[in-house]
Structures are given as C-alpha cells and as structure tokens.
Amino acid sequence: MSDIRIELVYAAINRAITSIDYDIYDDIHKQHEFKKQTILADNFLTNDEKTYAIKELNKTYDKNKIFLNEGTRRTCENCNQECLATLYCEYCVQNYLKANFSNWTSGNNDIDNLIQKCQIETLRPDTIIEWIPYNNLQNIEYLTKGGFSEIYTADWIDGGYVEWDSKEQKLIRLGREKVILKGLENVENANQRWFEEAESHFKISSKWPQIIPCYDAIHDENAIHRDLHSGNILYSELNQQWFISDLGFCGPADKSTESIYGNLPYIAPEVISGKKTTVESDIYSIGMLMWEISSGQPPFNYY
Predict the structure, then answer these.
(1) 127-183, pLDDT tens digit by residue?
(2) Would you say 61 and 32 are in contact if contact means Cβ atoms under 8 Å apart?
(3) 31, 76, 250, 270: which has the highest count of C-beta atoms within 10 A?
(4) What are the residue boundaries of the Protein kinase domain, all occurrences included (predicted)?
(5) Residues 196 and 202: beta-carbon distance below 8 Å
(6) Main-chain dihedrals φ then ψ at residue 196, nearest 5 degrees
C-alpha cells in the first residue's frame, strides 16, 4: 500500500469523472460503471493503484446510493436487514455505535443526547460525529484567534473512524491525525438555539461533506448557513474537493436571537437592517462569493 501514488490515483479518478457523458450515462449506476472501466483501462496506474481507486469509487457509489435511496439492496449477512451499501452495512454501523453509548460521556446530557442522536442516524463509517476526550489530544498549539473563539492545532491520538471491518464487525480508526480545535467563549451558557444549529451542522456534514451537495443539503434540512464567505470555504489538494465550514456558528455560543453576526461584506442588506436570515440571504452571500471568484477581489474591498 505504501507504493501507491495517491496523488496519481486521485488524478485518474478526476479524469474519469470529467470524461463522463451525462447524456449517455444518465444515472449514478451507469456513471459508476463508466468510472470503474475508465480506471481499469488507465495504463498509468499499477494494479494495486487500480484496486485502491476502485475502492474509492465504491465508497462514493455507496454514499450516493444511500443518500438518494436507490439501487439494488442486499441482505446483510450479520443483521439480516436490507442495506444499500456494498462495502459495509449502514445498520450494522448504527448498531455498533448504539452499543458503545455507555462507554463514553461528555459530562453534559444535552451534548451526549445530541451526539447520540447523530450517531443513530449515521449512514457512513467515515463521517461519524463523536465525543473526543481531551486526553486523547496531544501537541496542542495555539494558531490564531477569531471573533469569538481561539483556534488551536492538535494531534488526535486515535484518529476518526474511516471504514467498517465486515469480518470483525467493528469500525476501524485512521490512527494519529492532525485536527483543528476551536475554543468557544461562554459555551457553558449556550442556549437552545446553539444546540439546534449544532444538530443541523452535524447532520449535514455527516451526509454531505463536500461543498456542492452540502449547499443543497443545507436547505434540504431546512437549515441556513448564515455566514457564507470565502474564509469558510476550504479546499483539499489531496482529493481536489471543496468543503463548507462553520455552518451556523458565527457569533458567541450564548448569542441572543436578535443579534447579527457574520462577515459584513457578505451579509445581505436586509439582514443588516434587522430582518432574519433566510435561504435568500444565503444566496446573496453566494453572489458575493461569485464576485470574489470572478474578480479576484473581496466584495466592497475599498469600502
């Protein structure tokens, strides 16, 4: 596995994706098969790299089948439920997490209930919301200070869950990985609205981590981002994917419902005037992002 050229693999996957004729391959199943055959015909990849690439394609295929709720179902040999995923069983993952509820606690019932609710609805083994004890973090270093929080980097000793081991019937962790910590001010006084925003954030990020489906999913969940700006758009060079961050978390944890927070040039005028944030005000922020992308300058840069 160490001989696999990861960047080359993802470049081949991206070539396969951009080669799709969506008039011919007009559903996720045809598109998946086309991508597989394109990878198998790629002479620049070794056999091990092709195997790795197809496994990555299967992960995406599983994700799409589950979230679109379509495709051939199979009977899980462990729990006997009809599942959609091929690399794992979504119900076995949920049952594994439920059985582990008694083995951890944050010390706060509201937080525990929120995390448990998210885990019960988990559909992927690599996007699981969980409680991380502070002693599982090492090399904590201050990075910067935001408007209402301090940002740190750290090493998570165990790392997050990445895949399901069907033979051992358990989730497998990545191992030590770099993480970002956000120290929230007044979090002990967080109001119910903060927990509702956190729940929306966790649900959306566990379903649709990438930027394009994530934006659709935000509104599918009847949620609003409230703070879309270029500082909250992240890019992964490894797999060439975009991500949205900080959904609904602008401002302090104990902010009142009447308060207005965000990055001023991206906030819709009606919100600045005191009206509530809406889907339309999110779209205004997207418009400002489009301005920044097309002009190369932040909006209202000289004001």
Answers:
(1) 899 999 999 999 999 998 876 778 899 999 999 999 999 999 999 999 999 998 988
(2) yes
(3) 250
(4) 1-303
(5) no
(6) -65, -40
Cα–Cα distance measured from residue 234 to residue 211, given in angstroms and rounded to the nearest whole number? 9
Q: Is the distance from CB of 242 to CB of 234 less than 8 angstroms?
A: yes
Is 53 in contact with 13 (CB distance < 8 Å)? yes
* Alpha-carbon span 226 to 194, nearest angstrom: 13
Element spanning 17, H or E? helix 6-18
Structure-token pair, residue 42: 């790629």
CB neighbour list of residue 283: distance below 8 Å, 6 or more residues apart: none
Give per-residue pLDDT as tens, 64-94: 898 888 899 999 999 999 999 999 999 999 9
What b-and-e string marks burial along 114-123, b requiring 16 or more CB atoms within 10 Å of the CB?
A: bbbebbeebb
8 Å CB contact between 9 and 52: yes
271 with 281: CB under 8 angstroms? yes
Instruction: Please tell me the number of Cα atoms within 13 Å of 276 on its side-chain side.
Output: 6
